[in-house]
């Protein structure tokens, strides 16, 4: 595993950008200089994050999300963790 988090990552297992090994290691996201802990998906190259909107759900029971544009900076939560 590399020293930098992936460019695009999603929490939803149905997404093609979902990576269980990366999520198990722990990734934090700094958005516009503020650390966010409610990010569902992010893209560094496109400059956006998707965050959950309240407790709203869509008709399939998935959380409603909103895309917000800005500066995205992912980082590893635990730098001492061993990559498998």
Brief write-up:
The chain is mainly β and 84 residues long. The protein is built from one helix and seven strands. It is globular.
Sketch the major β-sheet: 4 strands, antiparallel
- Return residue spans where pLDDT drops below 50 for at least 5 consecutive residues: none
Number of helices: 1
Total strand count, please?
Answer: 7
Bulk shape: globular
> How do the strands line up in the largest sheet?
1-4-5-6
> How would you state the average pLDDT, rounded?
91
Strand content: over 45%
Order of helices and strands: EHEEEEEE
Quaternary assembly: single chain
Distance between the termini: 8 Å
Helix content: under 10%
Rg, Å, rounded:
13 Å
Return the domain count.
Answer: 1
Q: Structural class of the helix and strand makeup? A: mainly beta
Describe this structure in words.
The protein is built from one helix and seven strands; from the N terminus they run βαββββββ. Helices cover 7% and strands 45% of the residues. The strands form two sheets. A four-stranded antiparallel sheet has the order 1-4-5-6, with no helix packed on it. Strands 3-2-7 form a three-stranded antiparallel sheet. It has one domain (8-76). The chain is mainly beta and 84 residues long. The mean pLDDT is 91. One of its GO terms (molecular function) is peroxidase activity. InterPro entries: DUF3297. It comes from Stenotrophomonas panacihumi. Keywords: Oxidoreductase, Peroxidase. This is Glutathione peroxidase.
